[in-house]
């Protein structure tokens, strides 16, 4: 007896029937059909994008052979994709906006700090459940130099297909991804595409003089071109890694190294670089990675006479990578790391017809939130929220307070100028505030890339330390501690209110403090970002269950908020979210509208009681907040 088992769908979502015999095995013809169907799925998907893909690719590279190689590479990647992942692609194709759901909450973490290694993370999956996490961003874990002074926290990759041995193996990563999927958790991984480590096999071959390998990077014999580049190219790390080029004495060559000297910029003018890097990205997607974080993506195309950031060619490349995913692994999303002002960030969403990134960091909002904490004035934040109010609903922001990087003060200084603030003194004020230099500030942070001549120092520190929890604990000041915890909870409530996906920086949910130990570690002391990259102390973390402890209070409050968000559709990412007037510049008001329902939220950015003009809110506590459901301002 033959039974029909609906097994897969073709690219248009139609079900394809597969025959199964009475013993439950697929018949020969079924296996053949399956193969044909698979081929058809790929062809149909490719056909949909082929013209655009070819136009974009040839417009950039004008190289038929390279284009054909690219298409073959896509086909190979599709063929290698596991059946379980293909099925997931199909399920997600049925519901492409699944990640807009109000239960999406993310957490980013360093595997080694969170649980030692990948197996350790797998053993801790219950913690994600406890925290309501549906998406985990594993910080760089691919092979990179052991010497931490040459690895940039894993952002100097020496092998895109190998996991750092101390963290486990590719198989461990696949197993972890599989376990996450079974629990409905998506896995995000960095794809460091602007550069490789100097230990990558291409860099090693280039160092040995292989001209093909050298053509994958920017190699020069003298300073003529590098100096010309330097005329217009800003510096990323002016203090810790000045200049955009490095002279290597052993080779007698100058290499473009925009970030650190041990991170060699890849030359994307060479189509083989793009082909191989896309192949690497798809390789990771085929290991079960659901969200690919395109690290430092604005920097990938360089051109003399420009700033070498956000050039039109970057957008072409990202669009092609988006198409590559739609063809090979349509369930996979691209998260762009564009740490810049809104006018530079928004184009990375592409257009509705030609999307580029599916998700982007809400970076200016994040910096504006911290500005509001230091100034106790929300006008800049309101202005920023208005800028992004009408971003199309397919464009999803990641909302966050802290991440592994520093906070850069890329604020709208034209707007601040209306109130008499100017850039350099304002940045200094913010840095003084958050490093606790300003009288009365309870914050404890450290500067990053503090350069006298640039006057553009950035800031490091954990949310808890920046909110004053560290100082209050040290001083044993109960009242200050309550205030600091309230501020920390209020900020979390805010990122849970904004439109998009809230992403916690691991440890923030239990109020982890700054880790000053980094300054004793020779490999890490030069980089103050390490202050907020401490190890999770699981023994201490047990206190999270005791609400009489500061940690328990914070954790309990944040979890309550996450649960409320999860069970309330008003927090869906397709909601219309916008700021409203509260009658007091210390208090931010926001409304959400979704499915005919409304919600009002208010956040007090000051340590005082404030009487708002909103009747239903009235007086609000120091650093207090309210979520009022079913209520709008009118
Ligand atoms: C990104 C990362 C940062 C790293 C840099 C260089 O900006 O977030 O941590 O230093 O890329 O790869």
Q: What does this protein structure show overall?
A:
The structure is a single chain. The strands form eight sheets. This protein has an eight-stranded parallel barrel, surrounded by four helices. It has a domain at 201-265: Oligo-1,6-glucosidase, Domain 2 (Oligo-1,6-glucosidase, domain 2), CATH 3.90.400.10. The termini are far apart. Residues 1-19 have low confidence and may be disordered. It has 22 helices and 25 strands. The protein has 634 residues and is an alpha/beta fold. The chain is 38% helix and 17% strand. The longest helix has 34 residues, at 28-61. The chain is globular, with a radius of gyration of 25 Å. The structure holds alpha-D-glucopyranose (GLC). Alpha-D-glucopyranose binds at residues 152-153, 155, 192, 259, 295-296, 337, 404-405.
Task: Summarize the model shown.
By secondary structure, the protein is an alpha/beta fold.
Please count the beta strands (DSSP E, at least 2 residues each): 25
For the record, what is the CATH homologous superfamily label of the domain at 201-265?
Oligo-1,6-glucosidase, Domain 2
Strand order of the largest sheet: 3-4-7-13-14-15-16-19
Under the CATH scheme, the architecture of the domain at 201-265 is Alpha-Beta Complex
Shape: globular
State the helical fraction.
Answer: 25-40%
**Which ligands appear in the coordinates?**
alpha-D-glucopyranose
Discrete helix count: 22
Q: For this structure, what is the CATH class of the domain at 201-265?
A: Alpha Beta
Largest sheet: 8 strands, parallel, barrel
Uncertain residue segments: 1-19
Rg is: 25 Å
